Fold each of these.
Amino acid sequence: MTAKRLTALIVATAACGTMACAQGKVDGILHEVVVTGTGTQHLLKDAPVQTEVISRKMLDTYGGKSLEEILGGLTASFAFSEGDMGSQMQLGGLGNAYILILIDGKRVHGDVGGENDLGLIDPHNIERIEIVKGAQSALYGSDAMAGVINIITKKHHDDALYLENTTRYGSYNDVRQHNGVGFGLGRLTSMTNFQLQHTDGWQNTRMERAEGQTLTDSRNKTLNKYTNYQLAERLDYQLAKDLSLYAEGSYYTKQINRPQNGSHPSCDVYTYDLRYRNASAAVGGKWNVNKRDAVTLDVDWNKHAYYYDYTARTYEYMKLEGEEYGELNGEWYSVPMYRGQSKLQSDQQRLMAQAKGVFYLPHDNTLSGGMEFRYDYLNAPLRTANGSASDWTAAAYVQDEFNMLQWLNVTGGLRLVQNHNFGLRLTPKISAMASLGDFRIRAGWGQGFKTPTVKELHYRYLHVMGSSTFFNIGNINLDPQGSNHYNAGVEYRGRKFTASVTGYINKLTDMIALVNVPVGEIPAGVTTAYLGDGSGNVQARMYKNMEDAKTYGVDMNASYKLTSELTLNASYSYLDTDAHLYDTQHNRLEKVTIDGMAHHKWSASAVYQHRFTPKYRLGLNLSTRGSSERFYQNNGNGKGFQIWRLNTTHDLGRTDRKLLYRLELGVDNLLNYRDRTMRPYHLGTTTAGTTVFATFSIKFKQGKALASAEKKGRDKASSGEDSEE
Amino acid sequence: MKKIKSFVLAMLAVALAAPVFTSCNDDDPVNNIVSEYSKNDEMVANQKKASGKNEAVLLVAFGSTWSNSFAAFDATKKAYEKAFPNADVYISFSSDICINRASAGENGEARDYYEPRYLLHAIGAAKYSKIYVQSLQVIPGEEFANVVACVKKFMNNGYIASAHLDDAYLKKLDEDKAIFLGLPLLNDPENDVPEVAKQLDAEYKNEAAKGVVAFMGHGNPDNYDTFKANIRYTQLEEALQAINSNYFVGTVDMPDNYKQDVLARMKEAGKNSGDIYLHALMSIAGDHAHNDMAGGMNPEDEDEYWDASEPESEENSWFMYFKNNEYTPKVTLGTNKEPLGLLEIPGVLNVWIEHTKKAAFLEDAYHSMNPE
C-alpha cells in the first residue's frame, strides 16, 4: 500500500469516526446453518435441538489465539484451567471426560490425566463452532454427557488454488503460525495445513508453599514454555457425480519445557520435560443416494503418545522384561535415564469405523441411522500393571425428525451401545420444538451411558505439581456411568434482537471422579516406592463411582443489533452441583466438591465492523469475560475474576480480488488483572496480565475448481457434517 | 480407472506415513543400567583408592527433598565415619523421586544421592573385604524388606550379565562371613524398644516433667503392614510410659493409632489439658513432621491446617488438633530452627550405630551363579 493510500485511509477513518458511513449487509446469524444437534442441516433458528453457535464473524473479530481463549471468551458456558498437560475444560459442571470435541464431526482423540490438548485445534482454521449441551445427540455418542463441541473447519473446495499465511505474535514470545495450501486438479482437491504455536510461558508469582514455609524464590511458572506444530493433509476425490471419497492424515507434536534452574528440590526442580506426539489417518466417502438422501462411511485411526524427555539423570521405576536382563528379568527396577533420552509414558491408540445414512421419508420425517465401532488400546509399560490395556465399544443408532404439525417438530433417537466389559445399554433421547412466530420453545431429555475409560480402569501415575505430589490410580472395580439430561428453553429470534434462556438438570448415576483416598485403599506394593517412611507427602487419589451427582443451571444468551454495523452480545451461565461419595472409613455419605465448579460465569462483547472504502474494513471487538470463585477439593479455591479485551481488525484489499490482507491488533486483559495466589493453590485464571498481540494474514485465491461445478448441482441440504462449504 | 488407482495410492500413502512419523527414540534400559553401574563403580573405586580403606558401610534411607534433612544425613554420615574409622561410608536413597530432585538443584545446592542397588554393586566391584549394610528405617516394615532383597540380590550376583561381579569375590565375602545387615531402629522389642525409650526420655525428660510428650510415627495401613511391625509403636509407648506416664506414641497411617486415638488415651489417663510437646518419630523431619505434625505452628498458617467441620481429618495437623482440644501444643526446634528427626538425636543415632556394629553376618545369602 502506498503512503498516499494510507493517508486517504486515515482521513477516511477520522471522517467517519464511529458513525456508520456505509450500509452493512444484513448479518448472517439469522441464516446460520447448524448440523450438530441432529446430524442434519437446519437453520439455526429452526434447529430441533438447542444449539449455541460461535459464528465466523465472532471468531474473526475476537482474534483468539487458541480454542481455550475462544470458548472461554465468547460463551459463558465454559471454564478452563490451563495446565502442563493440556486444558482442564468444564462445561455444565462436568470435565473433559464428558465433553466430546469433534472436528468436522470426527472425535478428537487423546487425553492425559483427563486433560485435552487443545493445541491440536488450529484457531485460524475454524469456520464456526457449534455447541450442543447434554447427552442429547443420538449420533455423537451417549458418553458426551456434558455436551458436544463441533468445530467446523474452513473449506476451500471451490478454489482452484488457495494460499494463506497467518502469523500472530504476542507478549511472552507468543507465536501462532498458520499456513494453508489448497488446490483443485480435475476431480481431486487437496488441502494442506500447517500450524505452529509457541509461548515462553510466564510466572505470576514467585511465592510457593513448600517445605513447611512460604518460599519467595520459586522458579515454577504459571504456564510453562511450550512449542507445538501440526501438519495435516486432506485429499478429496469426486469419483462420480454422486460419490465422493477422501483421505486425510495429520502429524502433531508438542514439547513442554519446565524450569531447569530451580533451587528447591521439594518443589521447583524437574529432571524431565514433557512431549506429545499425535498422528491420525482417515479414509471415507459419501454416496448421495438421490438428491437428498446420503450414506457416509468413515474409518479413522488416531495415536496420542506421551513421553518424558530427560534433562538430567532420572531414575524411572520400570519392570524389566526380557532375556537380556538376565537375573533381573521380571523385576521392577530403578533405571536411570539420562539427559537427551526419552521414555514413553503412554500411547493411546484408537480405531473407529462409522457408517451413517440420512433418508428423507414421506410425511415430513427425516430418518438418520448408523453404526459405529471403536477400539481403544493403551500402551503404558510404566503406568499399568500389565503394560497395556484395551477396550471396544459398538453402537447402533436411529433418529427420526418428525414435523408433526406445522409448528411442532419432534425428534426422537435411540442409541444402543455394546461395550466389551460392561455389556449392552439402550439410551433414548427425545426433543420437541414449538415454533410460535419468532419464538421457539424447546424441551429435551437425553439419556447418557459412559463406560469407564481404559485409563480410569488401569492407569496409574505419580503426578508431581511443584510441591504437591499426587499418586493417581485407576480402579478396576468401577461401574459404568449413566445420566439423564433434561432441558427446557425459550428462544426469541427477531430481526435485531435474539435471546435465549435454557435451564437444565443433568443427573448422573455412578459418576466417576478422581477423589482423595486413604493410602490403605491402594494395593500394597504399588506405592511403597513413593510413600516410604514418610519423609515425602504424597496424596493418594483414586477413580471412584460417586453415589450420586447432579449438575443444574441456566444459560442465557442475548444479542442486539444496535445498527447494521454494531452488535452487542451477552452471555451468562449459572451452575450448581451436588455430588456425594460413600466414605468407607467413616461409613457415611460425604458431599464432594466437583473440581473447578463456579456458580457464575459471564461474557459480553460489542462488535463493530465498518467498510470505509472498498479496500478497507475496520472491525472492533470490545469484550469481557468473568467468573465467580471456582471450587476445588484440594489446594484451595480459585478467585473470581473479570477481564477486558479489545481487538481491532483491518481488512485490506477488495473482497473480489485474488489477494487479500488482514491486520489485527489487540490487547487482552486491559486492566492488567493477574491472580498472584501462591503456588500450589488454585488460580481463578492463569492470565499473564495485560498482553498485546498482532496478526498479519495474506490470502490468495485463484479461479474455480473444476469439481465445484459438479458440487453445485448437489443439494446442499442433503446431510453430513463434512459437507459444509 | 487410472485416477482411482492414484487416489487409492494417495490414501494409502497418508495412512502409512502417519505411523512412520511417530516411531520413537526410546533408549535401551540395559545400556542405561550397565552405564549407571559403571558410574557408581568409578565413584566408589575413586573413594576406595583415596582412602585406602578396606571396609564399607552402606546406609540406606528412604530419602528426602528437604534441606534440613540433607544436613541430617550429612551429620549421620560423619558420625558413622567416626564410629567406623576403617570404613568408607556411603549413603543411599531408596526413593527415586528424592534422588532425582535432590540431584538436579541449582549449582552448589545439588546433592547427588545414589540408589542402593547400584551403590552396592559398586562396593562389590571395588572388592571391599567387609561390607555393612544398615537400614535407616524406624520399624522393620516393607521398606526394610526391600533392603534385605537388595543385599540378597547382591550376594547372588543378580545383575545383568555384562555387569556381573566377580563371583569368587562374593564367595569369599560369604566364606569370610564379611557381609553384615544392620537392622532397623525398633527391630527388637526386647532390647531396641526399651533402649530407644531410654534415649528419648534422656532427650525429653524435661518436657515430660512439664506436660505430655507425643511422638508422631508413620505407621502403615493394615494391608501394608505385612510384617506386623506397627506393633512397635504400641510397644514403644508402653516402654516410655513405664518411665513416665506423660509419653504417648501415635502415627499418621496406623489404624487405631491416629491423633484422635492418642487424644483418647491421654484423656483416659486424665491428661485433659496443659502443654503437649510434639516430636517426629521418623528418621528425619520432612513433610510429615512439618505439615502433619507441626502445621499451624506459625499463627499465620493456622487456616491451612485446620478444618473445624472435620476435626479428625488427615488434613488437620496434630498441632491444630491438640490446640483445638484445649491443649497448648509446642514444637521444640533444633539449632537449625526445624523440628528434629531421630537421626539428629545423638543417643538414638547411637542405637543405629550399635545395630551396625553388632550386625549379624547375613547367612545363606550367597549362592553361586555357576552351580556345579
Amino acid sequence: MSLKPNAKAVLEVKDLKTYFKTDDGIVKAVDGVSFTVHEGETLGIVGESGSGKSVTNLSIMRLIPSPPGKIVGGEVLFEGEDILKVSESEMRDIRGDKISMIFQDPMTSLNPFLKISTQMIETIRLHNPQTDKKEALARSIEMLKLVGIPSPEKRIYSYPHQFSGGMRQRVMIAQALSCNAQVLLADEPTTALDVTIQAQILELISEINNKMGTAVILVTHDLGVVAGMCDKVCVMYAGRIVETALTDDLYAKPAHPYTEGLIKSVPRMDTANKDKRLFSIEGQPPNVIDLPPCCPFHPRCHKAMEVCKHAYPPEKDLGNQHEVACWLYIDEETKKQALQDATQQEKA
Amino acid sequence: MTKYIINRLLGIIPTLLIIITLSFFIVRVAPGGPFASERNLPEVVKRNIEAKYHMDEPLIKQYGRYMFDIIRGDLGPSFKYKDYDVNYYISNSLPKSIVLGICAMGLALLFGISAGIIAAVRQNTWADYLSMGVAVIGISVPLFVIAPVLQLIFAMKLNWLPTSGWYTTGEGYLTIILPAVSLSFAYFANIARLTRSSMLETLRSDYIRTAKAKGMKNSTIIYKHAMKGAMLPIVSYLGPAFAGIITGSIVVEQIFRVPGLGKFFVQSSFNRDYTLIVGVVIVYSLILVIMNFIVDIVYAQLDPRITYK
C-alpha cells in the first residue's frame, strides 16, 4: 500500500462535469471533479448514494447513457491524451483494453445467455485480433486461475448462472484484466456480495494491483473498504470532491466536517457507551437539481457559517497531498470578500 | 431432455382427448342441428337421415362411435356436404393454408424483427416513429381493408400481380404474394412492437453495459449479446401466432380466392356440421399444442438457465 515516489500518472481527471437533463431541471451529477491516479496506485472514491461517484467512473469510460446524460466539460487524460476528445472507435479500443471496468452487481453484469468462455475469448480477441481462439482460451483459463476459480479449464465452459455471486465477480475481474488493463475502475465491486466474500474480492483486487501494477479506482460507500485498500481517498458530496487525502491522513485528521461525520458513522464495537455507538449525519443529501451556489453540505453541517450558505468554498491545500474544500480553512479576508460578492450577485 | 420431450409428446394425447370430448358435446348443446335449415322434411325422411348419421342413438353411444373412428384417424363424414368426409376437406385445404401461413409469417418475422430492432436502437428518431407508425396501422386497420387496397394498387392499377387465385389451380406462383402480404400485416405489427420493447429492455440491462465497457461495437453487441435475450418474448408469441396463421383466415381466403382451411371454421359452425367443426378444432388444437411444445424447446435452447427434467 505504499506510494512509489516517482510513479507516473496514468489517469488524470480535470474539472470533469457530467450533467443529466431531466424534466425537473439539470442534474449536476458530477460538477467539477479532479483527481489523478498513478501507476500501481489505488484511489478510493467515497460518498453517499447519489453523490456522483459512479457517474464519475462511467464518464471516464464515456458510458454515460446519452440522452439524458452528457459530459459537458473537463478533461480525462489517459497517458497524456484527452480521451473525452478521441473518436468513438478509438475509445472502443481503450475500453476493456487499457481501461477496464467492473460493476456493482456481478449477478447481472455477465451475459446470462453466453458461456464464460465465449465472453472472455471475445474480449481478448477484440483487442488482440491476431490471437487465435486457442490462445485466447488458454489466456482466459490462465486469468481465471489467477483470480482463484477452481479447475478453470472445466469451469470456463459454464454459464454465469452456474457460479455464485463472488465467483461471478472473480470472472468479471478476470475478464476485465485479460488484456492487461492499466486502469481498473471498480464500481462498488463488493456491495452486492456478502461480507466474507467481500473481503476475498477486495483482497483479490489489491493482490492484482500489486502483482500486475494495475491502477485501481475503487468507488464505494464503505469507509472500511477504503481503509483496507486505498492509498488515497477522494470524498465526494453532491457531485464534487470535498476532500482528498492519503488514507492514513484522512482517518487521523479528517478536515471536512462531512468526512468527519462519515468516519464517525462507521459502527464501532469498541466504544463503551452503547448509546453513542452509532453516529449518523443529520438530514438528507441535497437535491442536486439546480443547486444554488453554496456549500451543498451547509444545511447538515454543525460548523456552518454565513458564507457557507452563499458561496462554494475554494480548495485549500493542507500539505502532504491533503486538499479540502471547506470555508473553515480559508482566511477571514477571503471569506468576507466572497460573502460580499455573493450577496451582491444575489441582489442583482 | 429426451425424457422431457417424450413426456411432453405423451402429454399431447390426453390434452387432445379432453378437447375433442368438450367440443363434441358443446357443439351438440348449441341450439339447432345440421338439418334444421332444410325445408320441412317429412318425418320419415328426417328419421332416415338421422339414422344414417347415427343421430338417433343415445349421445353417449354416438360419442363412443366417434372416438373409435378418431383413433383410427377417421374424422367422420361431413353432415353438410354429401359424398365427402372431413378428412378430405382438411387434407385438401390445410396444406394451402400452411403454405400461405408460412409465407406470411416469414415476411412478418423478417420485417417485424428488423423494424423492431431499428426502432429500439434508434429510439425516438424518425426511424423509430416510422416503423412504429406502420406497426400501429398494421394493428388497427382490419384485414378486409388492407387486402382490397393492396389488390387495388398492385393488381388493378399497376397490374403487377394477379388479383386472386391460387397456384395449385394453375394461376401462377405470383398469386401467393398479395394474400401473404395482407395476412402478414397484423403479425408484422405485433412482432415489431414486441421486438422494440424487449430490445429496449435488453439494451438497458447490466450485461449490455459490460459489453460496452469491454469495447465492443454497438452492432456486435446487438447481434451477439442482446439478440438472444430480446428474442424470448417473440418466441413465446410465435407459438400461438403460428398456429393461428397456418390454419388460415377466412377474410384472406374469401378476398383472394384461396382454397384454404380458414373458411371451414366459419362455415362449419353456421351449418352445425358437427364432424367438420370438431375436425377443424382438432387440427387447430393439435397444431397449437405442437407449436407450444416447440416454443418450450426453443426457449431452453436460447436461455441456458432453463433446463427441463
Amino acid sequence: MSADTVAVRRRARRRPDWAGLGLGLALTLVILVPMLVVITWSFSNVWRYPSILPQQMGLKFWQATLARADVWSALVTSLSLASVVTLLSTVICLPAAYAFARLKFWGRDVLFFSFLAGQAFPKFGLLVAIAAIFLQLNLISTFWGVVLIQLVGTLLFMIWIPVAAFQAVDRRMEEAARDAGAGPLRVFWSITLPQAAPTIFSAVLLSFVGTFYETEGAWLIGAPQIRTMPVLMITFINNQPVIQYGAVLSVLLWVPSLVALVFTRRVIGSSTFARGFGG
Amino acid sequence: MARLTLNALGKTFGTTTAVAAFSLDVKDGELVCLLGPSGSGKSTLLRMVGGFETPTSGEVLIDGEVVTRTPPERRPTAMVFQSHALWTHMNVFGNIAFGLRIRRLPKAEIASRVGRVLALVGLEGYGKRQTNQLSGGQQQRVAIARALVLEPKILLLDEPFASLDQHLRERLREEVRDIQHRLGITTLFVTHGQDEALSLADRIVVLKEGRAEQVGAPAEVYRSPATPFVAGFIGSMNRLPGSVEAGRFRHGALELPLEGVPDGPAELAVRPEHLVVRAAPGGGAASLRRLTDYGTHRIIDLETSEGARLKAQVADGADLPQGPGLQLEPTAWAVFRNDQVIARSPA
Amino acid sequence: MTKVRVPSGAGESRGPLGLLLVAVPVFLLGWMTVWPILSGLVTTLFPKDAAGFSLELYDRFFSDDYSLDNLRLTLWTCGVTSLILLAVSVPLALYLRFARGPLASYVQTLAMFPMFVPSIILAFAFIRVLGPNGTVDTILNALGLAKIRSPYLTVWGPVIGLVWDNIPLTVLILTSGLGAVPNPAIEAARDVGARPLTLFVHIILPRMWSSIFVVISLTILGLFTAFTLPYVLGPASPEMMGPFMQRTFSDLRNPEMALTQATIVMGFCILFGLFYVRSVARNRRD
C-alpha cells in the first residue's frame, strides 16, 4: 500500500498495538463470550446458579428438543417459507435486474431507484400498513400472506445486487458470443448468467437466510397460525422455563447464518456492499 | 472468399457524428487497416460491419448481399476484441467450440476443427487450460482462434494487440499477417498505431472525426499524404509555416521553387529522412540544437532563423558546425494550404 | 460495480421488453409499499366513525398519556442508542481504517460478527449473560461481589441489544466513509506536526460527516420501529412503538389505531428516510 501503511507498521513494531488489544479484548468479551455461553447452555444437562461451569454436560436436551413436534413443524414452515420466497424472488427479480442492467426503457432510472422507497420508511410501520390491507384481503394468518410480505423484503437486495453483477459482465464477452452465432437468449444463458453467477448466488443466499430469520412480518401477519423458527424462539424465551430448549434452538437456528457467513464474505467485505447502504 | 462494400455508412449518437457517409470497397482477401486517433470513429465503423451497432444511414454489403440490419449472430463476420473478451468460465476448448456447438456440429468434427485452429495459432494441446492460466499473448491467440474456427467471410480485429507489450505485439502482428495470407481471408483491422498499419495493411484508411482523410497503400499514404493531418499522423513530419511568393515557397532563408501555385500563406511538410543538412560557410537557414543517437540512426534537432523547430535524420552529424550555419535541402516534400496539397516534390 | 450506465448498442430498441421484465417487482413494490402508505393516510384521516375528514384518531393518540409515554420512550431509545453506537463505532472504524495485521483482522471479524447473529439469538444470549442469575451474576458471585441490577426488562435492555445488533453495519459504513480520506492528506497533516486529536478533528472528521449522517438516519429508521428486541428485552410499560403497534393491531384488534400510530411514526422518520434514500441513490450513481 502506501507510505502511511508502512509508517503504521513501523510504529506497531516499536510498541504494542494497545488500541487493537483493547478493542480486541472488549469485542471478545461483548460479542464472543455471550455466544459461547449460549453454546455451553445447549450442551449442559444440569447447570444451576451459582456454579461457574455446568454441573453435568451432555446431549440430553439436544435429544429432547429434536423430539419436540413444535420444533419440527416450525422448521418445516421456516424452510418452506424461505424456499418459496427465495424461488419466487429469483424468478421475478433476476429478469428485472437484467432489464435494469442492460436494456433501455421508459422510466428505467426512476423505477430502479424506486426500490429504495421501502427503505425510506420505518419497517414495522410499513408492515402495520400492509397488515391493514391484508386484513381486508383475508391474508392475515395465512402462508401466502407471509410469503408476500417476506417477498417484498427481498426485492431491494435481489434487484440491486444482481444489477451490479450484470453490469460487471464485460459487454464484449456478450458481443463475442453474439458474433459466434448465439442469439440474445443463448448469450444470457451461456455467458451473462454464468459470469454473474457468483454474485447472484450470494444475493440468493442472503435472501434465503434473511427470509429464514425474518421475524417481524411473520409475527404480525402469520400469528398465530404460521409459526416460524424465530417466532417459536420468541415463545421459548417468553414462556419456556427450561433454559436449554432455547439454547439448543438458538444453536440450531444459527446454522444457516454460519453457512451464509462462509459463502457471502466476499460480497459483504467489499466496499460496494457498504456503498449500497449509502456509506 | 468475400468482398465487403460499405456504402455511405453513417452513425450518429445523439448530436455527435461518429461516422459520416463512409464508403469503402474491400477486395477479396485484402487486409485493410482503419487507422486513426481515438474518437475518429474507426471502432464504430468496425462495430457496424460486425453488426454491434446499427448504422443511422447507408448500408453494409458482403458479397453484394445487404446485411445492414442483420444481427451479429447471423453475419458471416467474426470479431477479435481489444480485451480479447474470452469467456472466463470456459476453458480454451470451450471458448473456441462455443460457436460450433451452437451450430450443432457433431462432436468429432468440433474436436478436429478446434484442434486445427489451435495448431494454426500455435497453441496445440492448450485446449484444457483455463483462460486465466494463459499469458496475454496466448489469450489473444485464443481469441483469434475463436474467430477463425467459424470460417468467417470477413475477419474483424478491433485493436487486438493494444494491451500487449511492444515485443509481443510485433510477433503477433506477423503471425496474424501470416495466417491471413494463408487463409486468404478478407480482413478489417482497426488500430491507432501507424507501425501496425504500415506493416500489416494492403491498404490503409486514415480516419479523422468520422471521415476518411486518405485511402491508399502504406507506401502511398506515407510518401504522399493527402492532408496535413495524414502527414502528421503517420510517421514523423516536420511542418514549416511560410508563404508562396512569385513561384517560390519561402521560410526564412529556406526556399523551394514551385510551379503554378498562386501566392499566399502555405505550409511545408518534410520528413526527417528527407531533409538533407549541410554546413553553409556563409550562414544558412538553421542552427544545430542537439544530436541524438538512436543506434540505428541519428536525429538532429534544428531551429530555423524564424524560430521553427525541426528534426532531420543524418548519417553522422559530428561534422556539422555549432551555431547558425546550416543549409537545409528537402528531397521529398509537400506544400499544403487550407488542408489541401498544393504542391509536391517531383516523384 | 456500482455504476448505473445507460446501455448502448444491442439493447436500444427493446423498450417494451424492458418494462415487461420489471413489471412484476414494480407492481409488488407499488402494491405493498406505496399503496399501503397512501391507503393508511386515507383510512386514518377519514375514519369510519366520522362522516368525512377528521383528525380524531390523531387527536386520540396525542391526548393519550400512555401513547405519548411510548412515543417519548421510543425517541429516548433512538437518541441514546445512536449516541452509544457512534461512541463505540467511530473508534472501531478509525482503528480498522489505519491498522493492519492479524490483530486488526481479528477485530474486524468480531465487529462484523453480529451481522450473522439473528436478533432473536442475540436476545436469548443477552438474557443468559445479563439476565437474573446470568453469567455476569455468576462471576460477580464467585468473586464475592453483589449482583448487578439486570437491564433485562428495563429501558436499557433494548438499548444494549440494539447497539450490539447495529455495530457491524455502522462500522462498515463509517469505514467506507473513512476510505474517502486519502492517505496523503493524513501524511501531509502529520508532516506539519498535527497530533492525533488535531488530525481527527480537522482532517478526518470533516470528511466523515456524510457517513455519520447516513449512519444516524439508518439507525433511526431501524430503531424507531424496532420490534423483536424491545418486545423480548424491554419493559412491558411503557413500551416502544414497535411492540405497541403490534399489540394494538393483533391483541387489541384495532387496526385503525395501529395505522394511526404507524402513520405518526412514519411522519417522525420522513426526513431521515428522505436523507438516507438520497445518499444511497447518489452513491449508487457515481
Amino acid sequence: MEFFFEVLIGGLLAGVMYSLVAIGFVLIYKASGVFNFAQGAMVLFAALTFVSLLERGVPFVLAFLVTLAAMVALALLIERAVLRPLVNRSPITLFMATLGLSYMLEGFAQALWGAQVHGLDLGIGDEPLEIGGLLLSQFDLFAAGTAAVLVAVLSLLFNKTRIGLSLRAVADDPLAALALGIRLQRIWAVVWAVAGFVGLVAGLLWGARLGVQFSLSLVVLKALPVLIIGGFTSIGGAIAGGLIVGASEKLAEVYLGPFVGGGIENWFPYVLALLFLLVRPAGLFGERAIERV
Amino acid sequence: MLYREAGQFSSRYADDRRVFRLRQDRLGLALLLVFAFAVVPWLGNDYWFGAILIPFLVLSLAGLGLNLLTGYAGQLSLGSAAFMAVGAFAAYNFELRVPGLPLPASLLLGGLVAALVALLFGLPSLRIKGFYLIVSTLAAQFFVPWALTRFGWFSNYDASGVISAPKLEIFGIDFGTPAGRYLLTLGVVTALFWLGHNLVRSELGRNWMAVRDMDTAAAVIGIPLLKTKLLAFAISGFFLGVAGSLWAFAYLGTVEPHGFDLNRSFQVLFIVIIGGLGSILGNFLGAAFMVLFPLLLSNLAGLLPGGLIDAGQLENLQKIVFGALIVVFLIKEPEGLARLWQRLRERARIWPLRH
C-alpha cells in the first residue's frame, strides 16, 4: 500500500510539470482562440536561451531577465507578423500557423545556440525526501511549489489588475471587448508574453529534469492530453488534468505495464483523454460551445 | 488564345457534368499520362526514380488521403503516418502469410485494414469536435508504432521491427527495377486519384463538404453524420494505407515502425496545406514542393563557399524556411498552390488580354 501511495504522489507531482506547459496553452487559447502548438517550441527556445547565457558566464538573475525580455520581444513579433495578418481566419488556419511557428522557433533556437545537450542545475537536489514514511523527490516538490506560486501570480494578474480585467473581457467576448475600446492586438501581445514567461518557467524545470535539448519541445505532446482532459479554457482544468494524467500514467506504467510489455507512457495519456472526452466532450472544465445554425 | 472554351458547346447534360469540360484540359491530361507512362521510364535514371519521382507520387497519394479527411470532410487529423504504417505492415503480412497472393491484392487488403483501423479511431469524431478530436488521431499516432514494435508478429519477429519489401512481381512481370517500381507506383496512384476525384464529386463528397462547413447545419438538412464522418475516416485510411505500402515497398524497400512517426504525419499535413485544402491537384503540387524543396535548399547551400553551412545548420535552416513558408502561405495564399495554378489558368484563358 505504501508503494501505491508513493507511485501515486510521485505521479501527481510529475503531473504538475505537465500542467506548467498546459497553462501556457490555456492562456493563449482563452484570449485569442489560438490552439498554440508552438508552446513546446517556446519552452525549448526559452530554456536554450537561458542555459546558453548561463554557460557564457551571465549571472542567474540577469540571464533570467534577458530571456524574459527575449520572450516578450518574441511575443510582440508573433503578434505583429503572424496573428495580425491572420485575424478572423478559421481556428484550423491559426493552428497550422502555430505549427509553422514551432518549426521556425525550433530551427532558430538550435541554429543560434547549437543542438548539443546542455545540463541545467537549479541548485535543487534530486535526492528523495522522506515525508510521513513516503519517499518523495525533492525536485518534484519544488516544481509543484513553483507551479502553485505561478498559478497564484497568474490569478492575481487576472483578477486584480486592469490588464487582467481586459484579458478576461477579451476571453469572454472579443467583439464586445473591441467595442469597449480594448485593444485586441495589445491583449494578444500581452497574453503571448505571459505564455512566454510560463514557458520559461516550464523550460527551466523541464530543462533541469531532462537536460536542455531538442526533445524539450516534445513536452507539448505530453501537455496535449492534459489540456484536453482539463478543457482548453480553464487554468484550474490544466492543473487538474495534469494531476490526473501524471497519476494515472505512473499507476498504469507500474500496474498495467508489465502485462503489455511496458513503454505505454507515450500513448496511455491519449487513450485516457479519449475516454474522458467520450463522457465530457469539452473536457472537465471546458466551455461547452452551443451551436446554432 | 490557345486555352479558350470558345466553340465548345454542351449539347447534352452529360457534357456539362464532365470532370474536364475543356478539350484542351482533356488533351493535356492525356498527353501528360502518355508522357508519364511511356516516355519517363525511358528517360529517367535511378536517381530520378528513387529520390524524386517515387516519393513524389507516394506523398501525393498520402496527401490525397489526408485531404479527403481534412480538406473535404473537415476533420483535422495528426495521425496520417499511423494509418500509412498500418497499411504497410498489413500488406507485408498478407504477402508473407498468404502464399501466392498477387501484389495488387495485398496492397488492396493492406489499404482495407488501414481503413478499418482509421474507422476505429474515427469513431470518437461523432461525439468530439474540433481541436478536441486531434487527441483521437494522436492516440492512433502513438499507439500504432508502439503496437507494431511491441508485438513481434507484425514484423515476422524481426529483432528491430523492420520489414522488407516482398518481390515486386505482378503476373510474372518483374517490377523490382527502379523504372518498374516507378511504373507500379504511377499506376496505383493514377487509379486512386481517378477514384478520389470522382468521389469528391459524388453525393458522398458533397456531404463531406457540407459537414466540413458546418456539421450541425448538415445534420439539420438530413445528411447522416455518422455515415458521412465514418466513411471519410475509412476512405482516407484506405488511401493512406495504400500510400504506406507503396512507401515501404516501392520507395524505401525496408521500413521500421518509427519511419512512420509524428514528423511524417506533419509532412503529409504540410503537403495538404501548401498544396491546397480541398483540392485534388493541390496534393501533387504540395508533394512536389515537399520533395524538391529540401533538394533545392541543399543544392543552394552547396553552392556557397565550402564549410560555411554544415549539415546540422542546414537542417535548422531548412526548418526555419519551412516554418516561415507555411506561415507566409497561410497569410498570403490560404488556398495553397492549387489556387495559384487556377489563377494562372484564368490568365491563360484571356491571354493576351488582361481582363
